[in-house]
Amino acid sequence: MAATDTWTAAQEPGLPFGCLPGAPDRSLLALEQAIRPLTTVLSLMNVGAHPDDELSALLAMASRGLGVRTISVIATRGEGGQNLIGPERDRLLGLLRTRELEEASRLLGVRLRFLGDTRGDPIYDFGFSRSPEETLQHWGAEHTLRRLVRVIREERPDVVVTSFRDEYGQHGHHRAITRLTLQAARIAGDPAAFPEQLSGGLGPWTVKKVYVPANPAMEAGDVYLSTEPGEPTVVIDLGRFDEALGLSYAQLGEASRRLHRSQGMGRRPAPGPQLFYAELVHATGQLLRARAAERSLFDGLAWTVGDLAGGLPAGSEAVSDRLTRIHRAIEAIVRAFPDRSRVLEATHRALAEVRALLGWLDAPREAHCPAGDARAFEARLPGELAADLRFRLKVKEGQLARLSAVAALLVAELESSAYELTPGDAVTLRLRAYNGGQRTLRNVRLELQLPAGWSSCPAGGQEEPQPVGPHQVAERAFRVHAPPGGPYFDPYHLPEIRGVVHYELDGEEGGAAPVSLPVELPRPLALLPEVSVAFDPDRHLFNLQPVTAGGSPPALSVDVLVRHHGRTPREVAVRLNVERGDARGAPQPAPSNQWTGGWDVEPDVARVGLEGQDVRRLTFMLRPRPGLVAGRWALRASVAPGTEPARAGASTGEGTTVQAVEYPHVGRTHLLSPAVASVQVFAWQVAPVRVGYVTGGFDSVPDHLRRMGVSVRLLSPQELRAGDLGAYDTIVVGLYAYGARDDLRAANRRLLDYVQAGGHLVVQLHRPQDGWDPERTPPYRLEIGRPSFRWRVTDETAPVEILEPAHPLFRWPNAIGPSDWDGWVKERGLYFPMSWAPEFVPLVATGDPGHDVLKGGMLFARFGKGSYLYTSLSWHYQLDHLVPGAFRMMANMVSFPAHRPTA
């Protein structure tokens, strides 16, 4: 775990707990926050590329401050980012970042949409990109544009704001999504664009205004190049305090950003102006002509329901009159605050008015009275305007229903007896509705909504509608049965399981406007396989060096964890299948017996009995056949009932691995994937050295060193402070460790003394903000490059030149050649040094096509009797992905002291 502060909502001064949707808090602040959205009919959409790209302070102002319906659209799940709090990488990291963004959006009251909505979606965070063209080649330009146009048509925003500009110096993902947003906003209103979407009630939608940020140096100077600002057409002070919230929108925005803990986001802005500059780049009609006089993002747009009434064409007076009545009913709600009873009554009157107009609009023409009004309305109100009006009224209907529950002090909760279950299992769900107010709620009815395949039956409690008086509770239990055949839990498409509390307000006024309040579970029900299997570990190395030396390689031991998620004892048979894998480890279709030099697996079948929540470890031995050559192999685990005959070709079911992601700030969720492991076969040598490792918690390099046969010990704070560092031949400092560990910074002088006395210190890449002092952290001056856009190599195939081919680091114990730089993934390296003292010798040079060649990937220096190596190449990522050359080079780096006498 990273040594970062654990932040909770309770530590944020003035944080409005009542702003949390679904929270039991029904304070006056929560009531006021529920009223604000009624005062406007506008929607704002913010579009970014990754979780944490959202303009948090702007969203806080729009949603919590102005009550504007606010939508955050994010392209990817952030799979290619860093993880500052745990071991999750790739898909697991994407799941963690998704949950972080969901909680951040919940805090801000923002509706969240993702463009990459499946695990295998091409809209994927594949790592840093220098250009939008490269990004769109990966994502698919038309595929992503189609998704974005659909989201715009579904959400119908009036104003769209991109998180970034499409300018050189920005992440290619940022530029790509900005470019597509401008295009999508222009064509979403065109019926000829993706016409297959225009069915089932979805129609074209014309975005009224599109903005891009115009701030100079939008991101900090150590992240991206400073670019010329755009021409701002509006300036917004997000540092202004909100009187009800008791904090500024910048502070509330940063409170949400601190939920992006895996990315180390969030700061504590001091009170004072926090200016946001926006440039209007697209608008309809006169809105564009008025850009020079703009004072807000919403200038020129209908703000209230009353504004809608005044903007209808002639001949639609019947609709205009009804809209005016709704507007006046909303004004009555605002005036009634903070009197809950008056707010509640006014809310139900407004709700009745909204539903009356919706019913009038949806009724057939002959049902309207007088008929002339209806014919005039249908003749003169354009179809898109009619659809727009229906949409905004449906939004108001939902807002009024939520306000009713807050004003009534209705606290509804749905709980499950268990949140993880297997096919065919049953759990008990309890729906409770507590009336904490002073008004009786009548015809209270509790029901459960389930997706297809799930079923329920009553299990006790209130079944018939009945009144619930002040301080009384209605409760109902349901016995819910999971479908016997799945589908299994998908964290990106959760099962729609919710409770609904139906009620009416007592008394004559407003009683005819019933409310249906949806109630969510505190965490989703996860349908898991009865038995899951997981390789431990799921990445293996097999050394061909004994074969090269004329010996016989030992067998490879592979452990499989078999976990029982069900409740019924059972016996299962587990089998391993070995297949050739591609460069990423994915299985190829040909079985091992069709390849020269495959593997024999012992045992052929392993049987195990399971009950309760058993976790059993099975060990298989893989014995190489003659002729085994270097390459990647894939292992698949399959599961069958224990009665399955132990014979080749017996029918088995593909094993599923269940991985849990759980942190206090995001709760618990799961990722299910095929049970597959990789075996990388190649030759390497490593000296018998003792290695001390200083981990920052951000990499798995120690585990990989152990797989190569290296003796590794993690250095504790006490050992760094007072231990015998001379007991280690090599000490390795992990990724970003100087920023994560105060004890490391305090012990830095001891590490330099260790080098001076004859030790060998290897320091992996750090960022400028990671407690790195260019003059004091290394033995000689070494300055990490900023902005990082310039000091990285994102092309994993970029040529690498060895500048000192005679250096021992490239000669012993493994001779490093061109093939050792093949098969790299994601990148060559990042945060390259930009300058260094002459005592440092650059060992390699590499650079992205069309960009400067960087020589700071490996910097070597003698210091006293010892040696110091700083490397900004992404060894940790290559080791995670079993790149042979990275292991061979890492073996040389830690083995260096054993070669030093002859160097």
Spatial order of strands in the largest sheet: 3-2-1-4-5-9-6
CATH homologous superfamily annotation of the largest domain: LmbE-like
Q: What is the number of strand segments? A: 45
* Structural domain tally: 5
Going by CATH, the architecture of the largest domain would be 3-Layer(aba) Sandwich
Low-confidence stretches: 1-24, 217-227, 371-379, 590-596, 644-652
**What share of the residues does DSSP label as strand, in percent?**
25-35%
Explain the overall architecture.
Residues 422-490 form the Alpha-galactosidase NEW3 domain. This is PIG-L family deacetylase. It comes from Carboxydichorda subterranea. Helix 4 packs across helix 6 (172-187) and helix 5 packs across helix 6 (172-187). With 903 residues, this protein is of the alpha+beta class. It has 21 helices and 45 strands. Residues 1-24, 217-227, 371-379, 590-596 and 644-652 have low confidence and may be disordered. The protein has 5 domains: 9-303, LmbE-like (Rossmann fold); 306-406; 410-524, Immunoglobulins (Immunoglobulin-like, Sandwich); 531-644 and 652-681, Sandwich (Immunoglobulin-like); 686-902, Class I glutamine amidotransferase (GATase) domain (Rossmann fold). It has a 7-stranded mixed β-sheet with strand order 3-2-1-4-5-9-6, sandwiched between helices. Strands 21, 23, 24, 26, 28, 29 and 32 form a 7-stranded mixed β-sheet that branches.
